[in-house]
Design goal:
Length: 150
């Protein structure tokens, strides 16, 4: 977990405005608010499911790379990847932001990002796409792919 151990803080990005904040580790389990917009901050390592505005704010404003999982609730490989994604988010807390985008609820975002099949994983850093992978993979391959693009 990338954090400032001396200060007991981990970087997290706000799902509402995209601002990156320092989350005090002693505040786990409590409500911590964004310094910019005052929305609730996610816990370090939490997989987020923000709305369309939050997704775009994260892609453009987060100082951390954002790993987006475009998925469908009817997709078997998507369900297989969810626990792998959750473990990656927990391991890389403070280094990346992990979000899920349900293509059935947000087809316009899927079109905007050229998603033609699920699961599709896209890594965006400061507004620029850094990597894309389509389909399920084993946990170590997924972790290596994500690490090579963040």
């Amino acid at each position: 977990m990338a954090d400032d151990r001396a200060n007991g803080k981990v970087k997290v990005s706000c799902a509402a405005c995209g601002a990156t904040n320092n989350f005090p580790l002693e505040a786990r389990g409590k409500t911590v608010l964004c310094g910019r917009c005052k929305a609730r901050l996610p816990e370090p390592g939490e997989v987020l499911e923000p709305g369309p505005d939050g997704i775009l704010n994260l892609f453009h404003a987060s100082s951390l790379p954002v790993l987006a999982d475009f998925y469908s609730t009817t997709c078997g490989p998507c369900h297989m990847m969810h626990p792998i994604l959750e473990r990656l988010a927990a391991r890389r807390a403070g280094e990346i932001v992990v979000i899920r985008i349900n293509v059935e609820h947000h087809p316009e975002l899927a079109r905007q990002f050229g998603v033609q099949g699920v699961p599709t994983f896209v890594i965006v850093n400061k507004g620029a796409e850094r990597g894309r992978s389509v389909g399920a993979m084993d946990e170590s391959s997924f972790a290596l792919w994500a690490a090579s693009r963040t």
